Structures are given as C-alpha cells and as structure tokens.
Recover the amino acids of this structure.
C-alpha cells in the first residue's frame, strides 16, 4: 500500500496546479503531491511535496476526505489531500519532474478531460469536496512518531 500526500491550494477561485513530466502521466495537470517517505509524517510529506513541486512554502489548513484507489496492477494508493495556504510564493520547479506550475481557474480544471487531469475521478472529487466545505480539522492527525 502506498500513501500519497498533497495539497489543494486555492486562492481567488484558482488552484495551484503542476503539469507532470513523468512518462506515465506526461503533460497532465495534478495537485502538488507525492509519496510519503518512510518515517515521514503525512502532514510533513504534503508540505514537502508542495515545496518540491512548486517552490512555494505552504501552511496546511485542513484535510479533505481521504480516498482509496485500487489499480489494475494490484497496487493500492491511499490519497490524502490537505487544504493549504501559501506562506511564501516563489514558483520554481525541477523540469525533470514538472513541466509547469500555474494558478488555474477552478472551472477550467473541472472542465478538463481525463487525458488532461491526472487521476481524473479523485481529482474532481477533491475539488467537489473542497467546494462543498468538506474540509476537516488537522487535529485528526496525531502527528506523533512512534518508534518500536
């Protein structure tokens, strides 16, 4: 099972999106997100991925409903998307991983096709949940690292 953490960053009806450079999703728009590393808190991963993929420092403000995606290859991904505000905007990115970073109008993202938007079903659901106010407090995450 893989845990993916990312951010839905909205300002003035625009979402900060990244255009993927990875071969399997080349040219598709996505929320800044990525794998949670071993021994990393999910909240830390979301902040790190937002910074790595956009160059922007963010502050998490809430969490959207969590999704589970089962792939045909047998892999399962748990998708955790946080809402976040920009603390320091300095858009820069690694062109080997990201082709572009832009603030896109929410309605334009919602009208993208499944070829344009990575993880189309879950991405649209995250936007719908955001618009429906399904944003939950961050204290649902314990954020304590337990070592055994």
């Amino acid at each position: 099972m893989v845990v993916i953490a990312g951010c839905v960053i909205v300002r003035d009806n625009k979402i900060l999106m990244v255009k993927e450079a990875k071969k399997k999703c080349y040219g598709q728009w996505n929320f800044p997100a990525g794998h949670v590393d071993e021994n990393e808190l999910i909240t830390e991963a979301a902040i790190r991925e937002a910074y790595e993929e956009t160059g922007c420092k963010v502050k998490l403000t809430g969490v959207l409903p969590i999704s589970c995606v089962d792939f045909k290859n047998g892999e399962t991904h748990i998708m955790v998307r946080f809402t976040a505000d920009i603390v320091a905007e300095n858009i820069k990115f690694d062109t080997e991983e990201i082709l572009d970073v832009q603030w896109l109008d929410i309605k334009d993202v919602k009208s993208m096709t499944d070829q344009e938007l990575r993880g189309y079903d879950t991405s649209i659901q995250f936007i719908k949940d955001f618009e429906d106010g399904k944003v939950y407090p961050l204290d649902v995450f314990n954020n304590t690292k337990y070592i055994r």
In short: The mean pLDDT is 95. The chain is about 20% helix and 35% strand.
